[in-house]
Amino acid sequence: MTEIKDKSVETFLDELASRQATPGGGSAAAVMGAQGAALVSMVCNLTIGKPKYAEVEADLRVLLAEAEDLRAVLVGMIKADVDVFGKLMACYALPKANDEEKAHRSAQIQTVLREATEVPLACAKACAKAMALSRVAAEKGNLGVISDAGVAVMAAYAGLKSAALNVAINAAGLKDREFAEAKLAELQALMQNADSEAEEIYRIVKAKL
Amino acid sequence: MTEIKDKSVETFLDELASRQATPGGGSAAAVMGAQGAALVSMVCNLTIGKPKYAEVEADLRVLLAEAEDLRAVLVGMIKADVDVFGKLMACYALPKANDEEKAHRSAQIQTVLREATEVPLACAKACAKAMALSRVAAEKGNLGVISDAGVAVMAAYAGLKSAALNVAINAAGLKDREFAEAKLAELQALMQNADSEAEEIYRIVKAKL
């Protein structure tokens, strides 16, 4: 089967809109995060090598490498979301005619739900990282393309808030409450200042327009 | 030349990240808005026909039609942004060796800057519309996919905030201040309650998880 990243943008959107269960919000979150990382790279690529920005060039080379690594991770997460959702659906489809089958099905669901909690949590972390990188782009990037740093932060922020919803749903289904609460605490730490952070980076950009 | 919508998601991201001037934040904004509209459609498609949701089915059929129309508009805007940016770059490249050339170049830039203000403003309006549609999806959609309504609002909101930056940049370059101020006033009206509106729709979803 063709991976989503290899499908056209329009086909991705068609499939997102369709009654197919995947791709859904989890893949959309990863795509938004990847757009954020890509736009950080764009700002770097259009700043590096310009004499006017020689002073920040070394910083932006580091930023570019980080943004490109992060983009690769986020692109991988488009598929990771589809895969874990497919696994979860397969578990729900397991037979439950007797107690033995019910117990097996329930155990399988619990195993995959752990993964289905960790996948969007990893996406949320990557999006939070993309937000942090967009701040550097907003502070040091070429003023001629600084608006792209503002788009980067909004894309990454939307990806973070989106992934957070999927962490919350899947964690809610976990019977292992210790594991679930630990994951929700990690998420909480990521979300704590996300709203004000996004607003602040966006303002840095707006002030430079 | 292949339109962005017909390129793979990964190629789109590669080009976004590259030192090419387009696609940039304007196209990313349109893609985010289109993701928002697509996810509203997904919620509708996974609600319509379910006996449990028979009461809202008529409303969601209307919502689906609106979301699909809007998605088509937003997909068109991916290209519109690239096209107007290309036109603007062509104007800046016009010769300016003498006063006549300078006057011609300046007039051409001003003409295209009007369009370059209106294109992202139209994108901002479409994203604001996508936010409004996501509220209906959040309020009436199938609880099993309600998180997708939350992703929809965040995608549309990020698209709106992103497009707004491009309106602001291009309006700033306009000599016709009456036109510029009128466009900025339209933008201001769209942005007025956007932050609280996004937060509220997101909360509606979170409360249902």
Automatic annotation (TrEMBL), chains A, B:
Look up the domain of life of the source. Answer: Bacteria
Coiled-coil residues: 177-204
Give every Cyclodeaminase/cyclohydrolase domain span: 8-188
Q: Which keywords describe this protein according to UniProt?
A: Coiled coil
**Protein name as it appears in the record:** Cyclodeaminase/cyclohydrolase family protein
Protein species of origin: Methylomonas rivi
**InterPro entries, per this entry?**
Cyclodeamin/CycHdrlase (IPR007044), Formintransfe-cycloase-like_sf (IPR036178), MthfCyhylase (IPR054893)
Q: Which Pfam families match?
A: FTCD_C
